[in-house]
Amino acid sequence: MEGSEKLFSAREGIVKVERHAANIFASVRIGRVQWSGNLPPLFLAPMEDVSDAAFRRLCREMGADAVVTEFISSEGLIRQIDKSWNKARIWDEERPVGIQILGHDVDSMREAAHLIERVEPDWLDINYGCPVSKVVCKGAGAGILRDIDRMEYLTKAIVDYTRLPVTVKTRLGWDANSIRIVEVAHRLQAVGIAALAVHARTRADGYSGSARWEWIGILTSDPAIHIPIIGNGDIDSPQTAWHYYHTYKPHALMIGRAAIGYPWIFREIKHFFQTGELLPPPSLEERIAMIEKHLTYALRLLPESPQKVVVELRKHYTGYFKGLPHAKKLRLSLMEARTPDELLSALHRLPALAREGLTSPA
């Protein structure tokens, strides 16, 4: 991790993460966690079936300053569903960490927030941003963007019911004709949220088109908004991170899809902010070592069978090999592995496969 850092347990009061670098940055605080220094904190975004404990730990090791779990169904927590509670398992090595919950029923969301207290995350995050139809149709996730009154009511009910700091992740609005993020920020700040993460797209946008970061700038330039605004959307390189941060001035940056299979992005962004220079991309050997570590963490931390762990790793392969010659060939060579031993054997064959690809006729 670039720069110097000291991390104290969240149970000992304020957690302080300090860095020293030649850049401008004002401190950010969520509950008892405070980041200070000269770099904006970098968050790993909550992503379903991606931001599990193994990947969160990798990203922390590669420079992420904070991580958030994938969303967890409030109903699943209340009904003691193993899958839901497994997602809520966190370790001190990944702190600072927030746990994200999703739902639409006030009583269920309050009860879920209360139950999560026993896990002792550093904060509780509410998902008001998931655009998936099966979530939205129930009025959860981004579905609540059609009813801002209910969003305020639900948020206040949770803030008042839990002792945890509460943050929210949402989108600009339901569609381009109903962007109400400024109103949302004012109303949720008034009911006591500790920070607001904004994916600079609408629900109708999904993940298409370009993120509208100008709205992040409107939020951060509003003198009446004093909670941290965490900007999210299209941060896919050190250069875009620098541009969005210095142009629109979010208090922190949240990286999502660009981190999938590429946890180096956090290290690369920090290096660029500190030096103005790009780090060379990781070598094939570094990528193999990272996949092996990812596999080790997943086998140790996730309550899945070894075979399921290997299958779930596949979603990261595109990222792990991006930018390499013959990336598709390397990626496909791992896809047939069904067990950890088969995957390790396939990984050990990659250098020879890469050399063979480089020497084969075009």
Throw out a few tags for this protein.
362 residues; alpha/beta; TIM Barrel; 2 domains; 8-stranded parallel beta barrel; 3-stranded mixed β-sheet; 15 helices; 12 strands
Could you characterize what this model shows?
This protein has two domains: 10-275, Alpha-Beta Barrel (TIM Barrel), CATH 3.20.20.70; 284-359, Non-ribosomal Peptide Synthetase Peptidyl Carrier Protein, Chain A, CATH 1.10.1200. Strand 9 (166-171), helix 7 and strand 10 (195-199) form a beta-alpha-beta unit. Helices cover 41% and strands 14% of the residues. It has 362 residues and is α/β, with parallel strands linked by helices. It has helices spanning 53-61, 74-78, 82-87, 106-116, 133-136, 148-161, 181-190, 214-220, 238-248, 264-275, 284-301, 306-313, 317-321, 327-335, 340-359, and strands at 15-18, 28-30, 33-36, 42-44, 66-68, 72-73, 97-102, 123-128, 166-171, 195-199, 229-232, 252-255. Residues 1-23 have low confidence and may be disordered. The chain is built from 15 helices and twelve strands. Strands 4-5-7-8-9-10-11-12 form an eight-stranded parallel β-barrel, surrounded by six helices. It has a three-stranded mixed β-sheet with strand order 1-3-2, with no helix packed on it. The chain is globular.
